[in-house]
Amino acid sequence: MKTNAGLIKNLELSIGKLVDDSWEEPMGPTPMPGLATLRDWDMKLLKKYKPFYLPVCDLCCQCTFGKCDLTGGKRGACGITIGAQSSRRALLASSIGAATHTAHSRHMIDHLIKKYGHRHALDIGGLNIKVEAPLTRLITGIKPETLGDLEEVLDYCETQITHCLSAAHTGQEGNNLDFESKAFHAGRMDLIGMEIGDIAQISTLDFPKADPEAPLIEMGIGTVDTSKPVIMAIGHNVVPSIGVIDFMRDNALEDDLEVVGLCCTAFDITRNWKRGKIVGPISWQLRFIRSGFADV
In degrees rounded to 5, what are phi and psi of residue 122? Predict the structure, then answer.
């Protein structure tokens, strides 16, 4: 580029993101809150609805200073009490759940973006849905409209879950209510992680969209036709199961195979294929596997 002021060579411009101001609703006071952003509100709730602990263990064994006996008002080597240790376990459990759901959404959304592209429009019911992502809007201040918009929400969730887990490290907190506040925050991330995953799969995997007449589904091991080869899916991610069902449809095998499932993937199978079966909860998976009715 040459002007009267000078000569510029090898200039490269890169636009990372365009801000869309088409959302008429004003931004709230705390978009994408951090660990301490809503702490004051958490404390109001926790002081009114005080936690009550029934510890599953009187020891703390989470670092090399231990084992520490926390009975009778004793403190651990880092100064932790039985109440704080109990709430730390609650934080860990909340973070594990949030990480599981968010990792599932990450895996699925990455796959769907690779298949359909970042600009694939989100549609979970059209005019039948007034607020398409209530939790994501409320907590992050983002109104997702495409699959690519969900990536920013995922990045936020993953960052916050990492901070929640770091707070459970030795000596990070001494107050049980601070642990409880962070457990609340992990719960918020869990809610977002689940919501955006469901929005993505409804928009791409031919699930019912705000359909009040969605078909009823058979449940229980007794509904499985074991005279056919049985494929049983276990866990959260429905993408492999949808691949199996698509293969069956493409090759006219719907009447020749049974596709059943445990846990979340079972419900999502039936949202795509009304002949799918919900066998039971994932907590019984070993019983179902050992029964031998499933071939795969």
Answer: -85, 130
Dihedral sign (CA 288, 207, 103, 245): positive
Contacts of residue 77, defined as CB under 8 A and 6 or more positions apart, other chains included, come to: 63, 65, 66, 68
Portion of the chain with pLDDT greater than 70, in percent = 97
Residue 173 above 90 pLDDT?
A: no
Question: What does the alpha-carbon distance between residue 209 and residue 272 come to, in Å, rounded to a whole number?
Answer: 11
In the chain, what are the domain boundaries? 39-204, 221-291
In the chain, pLDDT over 90 holds for what percent of residues? 65
E strand or H helix that includes residue 247 = helix 239-250
Q: What is the mean pLDDT of residues 217-243?
A: 90
* Residue 185 backbone phi and psi in degrees, to 5: -65, -40
What is the distance between the alpha carbons of residues 78 and 81, in angstroms, rounded to a whole number?
9
Q: CB–CB of 135/192 below 8 Å?
A: yes
Is 1.10.8.190 the CATH number for 39-204? Answer: yes
**How far is 288 from 269, CA to CA, in rounded Å?**
18
d(CA 220, CA 218): 7
Mean local confidence (pLDDT), 228-238: 91
Mean pLDDT for the stretch of residues 115-137: 91
The band of 17, judged by pLDDT with boundaries at 50, 70 and 90, is low
